[in-house]
Specification:
- This protein is of the alpha/beta class.
- The strands form 6 sheets. The chain has a 26-stranded mixed beta sheet that branches.
- Strand 39 and strand 40 form a beta hairpin.
- Helix 6 crosses helix 10.
- The longest helix is centred in the last third of the chain and has 27 residues.
């Protein structure tokens, strides 16, 4: 870098540029002033080559090569700033107590531990110390290489990454925008982080909010004190004190997400979580385990905990806990919460959902969040095993209805629920055996969604059927999308507490290693299931066939006469069917149906 030459200063002045002090501007050796017009500079400025700046005010910024800045009211750094890093977000509990300090290398797993492991205060102390060490205050900002900033209002204390785009932004204060991110029309954001490849646009409002990688937040969506992680899509509605794990989805204007944890979640129109039935503040929280959904108009009075891949319909004031009964329907009947266990496992929608997430992963390059996409995994199977035990215990009692942790279950649903849960275990074990013996199971198979990450060797369990291991790894956890054995996680936490792991990089590397070793950890777990539930392996194939047939039957309903009611508007039954088939296709030709039939 060098100072401006006198002829360059003269050229800039001729082009209606001003500077508080021309000596405070450093430039690259190959800098040219030719594309800088009507710009007011103040503070410490660094200008690299091939930059275009017009009609803007800039203070204390390093403008990197190829940047394009047009019509910006103010782009400035004032005083010391960490660009949003270190901002404390009161996630889950609006009254505080679960604060997460956000920073631009924050992973969902790191945030999960920081928010939810408050029973280990030494761990929280050490993790916060690692954040504090990472967060460094600076006095100048950066506009990254190839970044474009056009027609924007006030941008104060914001770091802007390579190839980021800012267009028609209203106001940005104290934040970081990662490479390849887009921030669009009318956006107002304060105390924020926006991750790599994410899009925030159309009058979105962010306050004390982290947006992770490849997310979409827009169309007037507002978020306060919230964490939003990879591939989430939040439009129109509102989030407050929300931990939105991977693939959290909300598309509707009337939807309010508040004080809750989600992942792989889909919110129906008008979904509302209330934590305002309180005496000591808005302190109640909700837990929605992976894959949970809420139907249109659903209401939950927190506290509540919804089991994985369950569907909630209706109005619920009971503080229920269905975490040991995954794949359930949770319904309102006569003002009470009723649960039908396991049935969602046999629906075509659940099986289809489990495929689409991996296909819709928009992240590129290195990632911060390590996501286990498998529909059936040791964590879910552990919940299913718990569910079998719960239902068997309830079945010992003679009653038309059974009460369990805030829900009612009809006696007639117990036996069927147990059967479906055992079928799920059979499918999971069958997948593992197929991978063990063939190491080439079709990764697109709808009832067999497990497959290795393309960056790893094929998932393979050599001789798993005959294994007898002592390290059974019975307890597994879902830490915001990453499925890990509890003992492995505890080893890592102990290393943090004893300062064997001290940095953000080391913590994130530990998550990466857990992800890479997933299949190795899983082997003993599958062997244990095989010995416990399926001493006769022929039953596994039978259960898999039964599941495929149940899914086909559910899919066929989508092609029934009742599904054709809105078709053939001006014709008879023949026209109706022809219209339907030209729009929706036939049952036999459906790509998903064909894949299921391949496995039968």
């Amino acid at each position: 870098m060098r100072h401006l030459h006198s002829d360059e200063v003269a050229a800039l002045q001729t082009q209606h540029c001003t500077a508080e002090n021309w000596q405070n501007i450093a430039v690259a050796e190959n800098f040219s002033p030719n594309d800088i017009y009507n710009v007011s500079f103040s503070g410490e400025i660094i200008l690299e080559a091939n930059i275009h700046i017009r009609n803007s005010e800039i203070s204390n910024y390093h403008i990197k090569e190829g940047a394009f800045i047009h019509n910006v009211k103010s782009l400035s750094v004032e005083g010391k700033t960490a660009f949003g890093n270190g901002t404390a977000v009161c996630v889950l509990n609006e009254a505080g107590g679960r604060e997460v300090k956000i920073f631009d290398k924050l992973s969902a797993h790191f945030a999960y531990l920081l928010a939810l492991y408050r029973h280990r205060p030494l761990l929280i102390e050490k993790m916060n110390a690692a954040i504090d060490k990472y967060v460094i205050e600076q006095t100048s900002g950066v506009v990254g290489r190839g970044a474009r900033i056009t027609n924007c209002g006030v941008i104060r204390n914001v770091k802007i990454g390579d190839c980021a785009r800012l267009e028609n932004v209203a106001e940005l204060q104290n934040g970081s925008i990662a490479e390849q991110a887009f921030v669009g029309t009318g956006t107002v954001a304060r105390d924020f982080i926006i991750g790599k490849g994410s899009r925030v646009y159309d009058y979105a409002l962010l306050e004390k909010t982290f947006v992770g990688e490849a997310c979409e937040v827009g169309k007037q969506f507002s978020a306060t004190d919230s964490l939003i992680f990879c591939n989430s899509q939040l439009l129109h509605g509102e989030a407050a004190a929300v931990f939105a794990g991977a693939y959290t989805t909300s598309h509707h204007k009337s939807t309010l997400l508040i004080g809750s944890l989600f992942s792989f979640y889909n919110a129906g129109s008008g979904t509302n979580m209330s934590n305002h039935m309180y005496k000591l503040g808005p302190v109640h929280q909700g837990i929605f385990e992976r894959g949970a959904k809420t139907g249109s108009g659903s209401y939950l009075m927190l506290e509540a905990r919804v089991g994985a891949f369950s569907l909630v319909l209706g109005h619920h004031e009971a503080h229920f806990d269905s975490s040991d009964l995954p794949f359930s329907y949770i319904l309102e009947k006569d003002g009470r919460t009723e649960l039908i266990p396991a049935v969602n496992f046999q629906t075509v929608g659940t099986q289809r959902d489990s495929q689409k997430w991996r296909k819709r992963d928009k992240r590129t390059g290195d990632t911060l969040d390590y996501i286990t996409f498998d529909l059936l995994n040791p964590y879910i199977i552990g919940k299913i095993c718990n569910g079998i035990a719960v239902l068997e215990k309830l079945a010992e009692k003679q009653a038309d209805y059974h009460s369990y942790k805030g829900v009612r279950i009809k006696n007639i649903f117990l036996k069927k629920g147990i059967e479906i849960y055992k079928s799920a275990i059979a499918v999971y074990v069958g997948q593992a055996l197929a991978l063990s013996y063939h190491c080439g199971l079709d990764p697109q198979s709808p009832v067999s969604t497990r497959h290795s990450d393309e960056s790893q060797n094929p998932l393979c369990f050599p001789g798993i059927a005959g294994q007898a291991r002592n390290d059974t790894r019975e307890q597994w956890l879902d830490i915001a999308g990453l499925i890990v054995p509890q003992d492995i996680l505890n080893e890592m936490l102990l290393q943090i507490e004893t300062e064997k792991i001290t940095s953000i990089e080391e913590i994130n590397h530990s998550f990466s290693e857990m992800y890479k070793n997933y299949s190795q950890y899983e082997q003993a777990f599958v062997a244990q299931l095989l010995q416990k539930y399926f001493p006769e392996k022929a039953e596994i194939s039978q259960k898999q066939t039964e599941l495929s047939n149940a899914i086909l039957a559910d899919a066929e309903k989508e092609f029934s006469a009742s599904s054709m009611v809105g078709f053939g508007i001006d014709g008879d039954e023949e026209v109706k069917r022809a219209d339907f088939e030209n729009v929706r296709g036939t049952f036999a030709e459906n790509a998903f149906v064909r894949e299921i039939k391949k496995t039968c």
